Amino acid sequence: xxxxxxxxxxxxxxxxxxxxxxxxxxxxxxxxxxxxxxxxxxxxxxxxxxxxxxxxxxxxxxxxxxxxxxxxxxxxxxxxxxxxxxxxxxxxxxxxxxxxxxxxxxxxxxxxxxxxxxxxxxxxxxxxxxxxxxxxxxxxxxxxxxxxxxxxxxxxxxxxxxxxxxxxxxxxxxxxxxxxxxxxxxxxxxxxxxxxxxxxxxxxxxxxxxxxxxxxxxxxxxxxxxxxxxxxxxxxxxxxxxxxxxxxxxxxxxxxxxxxxxxxxxxxxxxxxxxxxxxxxxxxxxxxxxxxxxxxxxxxxxxxxxxxxxxxxxxxxxxxxxxxxxxxxxxxxxxxxxxxxxxxxxxxxxxxxxxxxxxxxxxxxxxxxxxxxxxxxxxxxxxxxxxxxxxxxxxxxxxxxxxxxxxxxxxxxxxxxxxxxxxxxxxxxxxxxxxxxxxxxxxxxxxxxxxxxxxxxxx
Length: 459
Prior knowledge:
Blueprint: E1 11-14, H1 21-35, E2 39-44, H2 50-62, E3 67-73, H3 76-85, E4 90-94, E5 103-110, H4 118-130, E6 144-146, H5 150-160, H6 164-170, E7 173-177, H7 187-193, E8 197-200, H8 222-231, E9 235-239, E10 246-249, E11 255-256, H9 258-273, E12 276-281, H10 286-294, E13 297-302, H11 306-316, E14 320-323, E15 327-329, H12 339-353, H13 357-361, E16 369-375, H14 381-395, E17 401-403, E18 408-412, E19 415-421, E20 427-434, H15 437-458
Parallel strand pairs: 2-3, 2-4, 3-6, 7-8, 7-9, 12-13, 12-14
Antiparallel strand pairs: 1-5, 4-5, 9-10, 10-11, 14-15, 16-20, 17-18, 18-19, 19-20
Helix pairs in contact: 1-2, 1-4, 3-5, 6-12, 9-10, 14-15
């Protein structure tokens, strides 16, 4: 392996080529050495590599004298929440989130349910690279135990914060699509306990992701859209592989962008609280800022990544945080992505307002937004971004402002362009938003061509 071990969110690599069980063992030793003691909650998502990587991590952690509690296959948010619920030292999740099935990875969670900030990940990586691991003697190795109740523990706490009676009264029909991922063990059961008629789709865990690609978006959720329409359902709910994301589909089959859902929930929270801060990432639509401002609040932007959102939520005392990809953070509950409480909040809003999700989101404007990826070797990303910073402002025309919070943000009179290197894949991502379909298509074509030219130029 070359380059950094940690990316935007933990470690995420192609199994067998960039990451394997020996590296997982070494990473377990590094993390146990970093902790110096205590107890770690360890779990995995549905990937075929999950059990092997989990076992190697467990061996490494135990060898340093740190205890391990294994929770089996559960969603990432469940691991983060239960780590805090039981007062454990840290949580370790074997997951590659929404990446394709050949990827595997590891994400670390602090005892307060928040991910580790980049500076702490660098410390762990430093220990990993040094090979200076704590070696516990034979009579002081960590102890291993098993926790079977994590999904039930998580559901119980979610339901205690939800107006179940209000939702039950409406008897909604909900189609749940976990995408063959870890949410299979939680979301269908949670929604049923809310008194809903549940239709399950792709709800058998399978690390090959046979039902659809793991990343839930408009291009991959055709089956869910069709099922919502054909069954006359009130709502569709989709997750990625480890369920730190949730995407909603209206009763008419519209896949709703995550930033519009954030805007919808934020507006209600701001009205109740009488103002406050909402945190989101640099790639969210301007409609979120406009909605929050009209509701008496303010928006703070961060680099992409749920840990960046969580850090800023904690720092600012924000009411809520989220990412357009379908991440929702509710700090009154915990500081990890919380898709399941988001589902409850949407159902509560539908029940209380007696409006469908389609009617509710119709009150949130939508501006045309496009995304693309340009292949770029990881070792070339720094030079590519440096060159783009030099040429993009002039090449793209009437650029009014340049932001460098995360990647390169170019503010146009009628929209914006964000160019940023992926922290999880060998690509450079391009996102554009404008006031019309024709304009956003033109801007995207121009920006993507520019990125391709620069990538070709530095090879």
